[in-house]
Every structure is written in C-alpha cells, then in structure tokens.
Amino acid sequence: MKKLILTSASVAALAIAAPAVAQTNGSTVLQSGANQTATVAQDGANSDSLVEQSNANNVANVQQKAATDLADSKVFQTGTDERASVIQASGAAQSRVQQSGGAQNASVFQDGSSSSVIEQSMRYNEASVSQTGDENTSVVLQSGVNGAVGDPDGNYGSADAAALVGVTQFGDGNGSVITQTGDNTVADVLQLGNDNVSSINQAGNFSNAAVSQTGDRNSATVVRQSADGTGDGNPASAPVVPDVFADALVSQNGDDNVASITQDAVPAFASITQNGDGNDSSIVQTGTASGAVATTLQTSDDNTSRIQQSAGATASVTQGGGVNGIGGREWDGSDLPPPPPLGSGGTLYLNNVSLIDQSADGASATVNQNGILNRSSINQSAAASADVAQAGVYNTSVIGQSGTGSATVDQSGAHARNASVIAQSGSSGSASVTQVGADLATPENAPTNVSFVDQSGSDNSATLFQSGDENLSTINQSGDDTVANVSQTGTNLTSTVSQSGSVTLAEVTQSGDENSSTVTQTGAFNGAEVTQSGSGNGSTVTQSSTALSGAIVTQAGEDNSSTVTQGFVGGHQANVLQDGTANVSTIDQAGLGNSAGEYVDANAVGVTQSGRQGQSSIVQRGSLQSAYVEQLSTSEFARSEIDQGGSIGSGHSASVVQAGLGVDSEIKQRGYGQTATVFQGGEENSSVIDQGANFGSDHVADVTQTGSSNFSDILQRGDGHTATVLQSGSGNESLIDQFGSDNVAAVTQAGMNSLSTVTQSGSSNSAVVNQGPAGM
Fold it and tell me: Span of the secretion signal (predicted)?
C-alpha cells in the first residue's frame, strides 16, 4: 500500500526554502488502498486543494489555473474506480466532489467565482458541470444507479466538450440543483444569462429532465419525477437505453419566466417552452395512470398556463399573440369578460391565461390562443376531449366536462371579446362553438358574442356559430340523442334552445338585429327549424309531444312574433312565414296529426303574414286537423282566429286569406270533418264561423268579403250543412244558423247596409239570398 500526504506545513516549508513568490496555494492528498492516482496543478494564488482517496483504482485530477484566486477544490473518493476531474480557470471558484460506492465519474469546469457540488453514491453515476461567470451555483446529488448528468469523456487534462456537459451555466448568479435518487435517470441543465434558477428532483427510474433557460431571472423551480419509466439499464456501466422515459423538459428564452413541473404518473411527459418575458407555466401530473402528456408553448410576454392532470390525459397549450399594450385585467373565474378598467376582481393577469385541470382517464385538451388577454379554463373529470382556439382580444372560454364528451371552441374577430361556456356532465356529448366578434353596437367594449352550452344527457350534439356583436346563445341538453344547431350573424341576436326530451332536432338561424328565438323540446322525435332575418322578430317554439312533431318558422320582416306550442301525443306540423311588420302568429297544437302547413315542405306554409300588424291564432285539439292562414302584403291590422277539434274533434280543414285593412275572421270547428274557407279583402270586414257543436260533422262554410264593414256569422250544428256567403258591398250583415242535416244556404250581398238572416232546422233545406242593386 502506498500512502502520500502533502500537508499545508510541508507546503509552507517549501515556500520558505524557495525564492519569494506571490502564490500561497495549499494542496493536500490522502491516499489509501492500491493504484490510486491524484494529480494537482496549482498556478493561481491563495487556492486550496484537498484530495482524499481510499481503496483502489480511484483517479483525481485537479487544475487551478493562473487566473484563480482563493479557489478551493475538494475531492472525496471511496470505493473502487471512482474518477473526478476539476478544472478551475479563474476567480474564487469553489468545487466539492464526493464519491462513494464505486465506478463514479465527475467532471467540473469553472471559469469565475462560482460554486459546484457533486455528490455520488451507489454506482455508475456520471456528472459533468461547466460554469462560466461569477456567483453561479451548481449542486448535483446522485444516490441511485446509473444516473447521468452529462457524459464525462475521461480526458482529465481538459474540459468536456459542450455536448458532454450536463450542467452548463454561462453568466452570473445562476443556480442549478439536480437530485437523482432513482435508477437510470438523465438530467440536463443549460442556463445562459443571469440570475436563472433550475431545480430537478428525480426519484423514479428511467426519468429524463432537461431545462434550458436563455435570458435573465428565469426560474424552472421544480421538476420532480417520482414515476418509473421503462428501458434497458444493462450493463449498468453503460449509458441508459430508454424505452419509455418519464420526461420533463423546460426551455425558456427571455426574461423573468417561471416554469414548474411535477410528475407522479407512470409514465408522464411534460414540456414547457416559453419565448418572451414574464411568462408563467405550471404543469402538475399526478396519479397512477399512464399516458399523461402536457405541452405548453408560450410565445410573447406575460402569459400564464396551468395544467394539472391526475390520469392518462393529454393537454397542449399554445399561447402566441403579441405584447399587451392595454394593461392587465382581473379575472375571478366568471363566465363573461369583466368590464374595464381592470376587471371584476380576482387575480390580475397581464396577458393570455389557460387553466386546464384533468382528473380522469382519456381526457384530452388543446388550447391555442393567438391574441392578448384571452382566457381559457378547462376542467375535465372524465374521459373527455376539449379543443379551444382563440384569436383577438379578451376572449373567454370555460369548459367543464365530467362525462364522456368532446368540446371545440373557436373564438376570434378584430374586436373579439367573445365568451363561451360549455358544461358536459353526460355521456358521448359533442359541442362545437365558433364565435367571431366585432364592436358594432353599443355599449362599446361590451362582450360581443356570448354562448352557454350545457349537456347532461347522452349522445347529444350542439353546434353554435355567432358573428357580430351583443349576440347571446344558450343551449341546454338534458335529454338523449338531441341535436341543436344555432347560427347567428348580426347584432343583439338571442337564441335559447332547451332539449330535455329524446331524439329531437332544433335548427336556429338568425341574422339582422335584435331577433330572438326560443325552442323548448321536452317530448320525443320532435323537430323545430327557425330562420329569422330582419330586426326585432321573436319566435317561441315549445314541443312537449312524444311523437314526430315539427315546426318551421321563418321571419324576415320587422317586429314580428311567432309562438308555436305542440303538446300531448301527436304528429303535429306547423309552418309560419312572416316578412311584414309587427305581425303576430300563435299556433297551439295538441293531440294527433294536426297540421298548420307542412313541416316536410317549407313551401306549403300554414301561416303567411306579409302585411302590417296582422294577428293569427290557431288552436288545434284532437287529430288530423289542418289550418292555413295567409295575410297578404296589402293587409293591415288583419286578425284571424282558428279553433279546431276540441277534446274529441278531428279531420277539420280551415283556410283563411286576408288582403284587406282591419279585417277579422273567426273559425271554430268541433265534431268531425268540418271545412271552412274565408277570403277577406276591403276594409273592416268581419267573419265568424262556428261548426260542429254537439258532435256535428261534415259541414262546409265558405265566406268571401271584398267590400267594407261587412259582417258574416255562420253557425252550423248537426250534420252535412253547406253555407256560402259572398259580400262585396258595404255595411252588409249575414246571419246563417243551420241545425239538422244536409241544409244548404247561399247569401250574396253587393249593396249597402243589407241584412240577411237564414235559419234552417230541418233536413235537406235550401235557401238562396241575393241582396244588392237591381240586376243582381
């Protein structure tokens, strides 16, 4: 055994014997065992070196160059075949290498007054550290097997090439801490700039972490890996060959960026790339499920991203845009963009914000924000998928998924300020929202397009498109197999769709200004289609029946109103077309097979109002009723009322055409198989038809009025009556009362202020009345 001790006293004695020089270096080498090698070269001033070696085959090389002053190097080696190389080029560099367990390799290069600590235990660990600058600190703690922080080349006389270095710090005040307690771990740190901080903690096997920071005051504060990847670590003395790494990668280019990664999943992958200044990204992946992947890329300044995943989930966030020149905004998690100047309370965010929380298997979330002050929050607690893309200024997207579903949000516009909320708690739901905002209406800087989608049933689908300003859409789906499609282009448009039934369809298309549509479906196999343009129009469709009801409403004028109600069991059909001004249509259908037009044929319209301030009311009870109302463009203040069927009536038909001013038509049909036809022109004409009381059937009534201030009243009871009235004069009055069966009455009035009364109470009676000028 060979032992060499070179103490500081012997160094002092040599210094006294030698000519006077400025150096006061000290070197101590303690060796025990066999075949130890220690090389110390000190060319600077006031530097110290300590090398302790035991057992066998250890190698230590220490070089303190001429520019060093107050440099200090300590190397402690125990075990077998441990190698350490320390090169200190300048300044008061501090280095400590402590190795135990055998077959360790450490390399340190320092150019400046920096500090390096490497502690290696167990075996087959490698660490290479290179620091250039002052007040840099590097700590590498390796207590597992085959940990790799770089790959020292074993050339002890020179520093490692850049590609072989595990920790590289170039600048001043940088700090790096790497702790490896697992086996077959890899960690790399590159910091270029000043006052950057990196911390890596690897407790699992086959973990891989890389931190790259360029700029000043960047912080990758926590990269913690306690999960196990898979791979081939044999032989243990060779570099690890990974199969599936538990990865964590951080790359920051700019100033004052902060990144934090915490991983406990098996395996997990997280990558944070921030180009710009003041960005903040935090990724937390916990749980025991495999396949969690989180990627955040932020290019611009002051962006914030939070991702937390506790199961096999995938989240990718990309936030671009530009520099925010209008100041930060507060956000308390509310749905709508808060008003200026700062917001509605809560955290002050300086630019784009994305918050993703996934706690169930199979969830996937993708957020892409290209603008400023956009906010996105995604919370998924079941196997769900969400995709959000936002461009422009001040968009808000909130997605909450607790069931199996997919959600897609795309918001943009020159002004933007769109807001979307999607809540999915059912299974297999699908929601797609596209909103393009513009500052077109007062108040300025208010939210442009706002949408709410709530899906709690199964296999529901919602598609929503809004473009313009001050638009609002709400879709609520709590039934099963429902479909809602809403498209709104314009300003101050409002749409509400509520579906709690099953196998229902709602289609809403609106353009123009201040139009409103409400569709409520609680039955089954129902369909509603609403199309509105113009301004100030309102449509309400309520379907509570349980079979094949359909409603088509088209409004293109101004201030028109349509209400369609379909209930009970039935195959109702309703069709409304209004393109005039301030017209009102009401359809109430219950029972089986009612019709006010044809749902399958948009051209077979049941109610058409193209005049001004017309009113149409249709009430259908029973089955197989049919009603047609047409108020032409020449009509004003026309009113039509049709009441068909009652509780047991069926098979009735009513047709009303109104082209006059202030005309009024009332049709009431009971019993079975009644037919009524009314045409009204002129002014202030009025028609009343009452058919089928007391279970009557098969009556026919036909009224034509073209004069002014004429009045017709037809009352039919019994069976098989026919009544015809033609009025073309003014101030005429016709009264027909038929009771019995198969009676016929015909009244023609062409003069002025004539009065006709026909009463029939038997059967097969016939009455003909002609009133008017001579020759009629």
Answer: 1-22
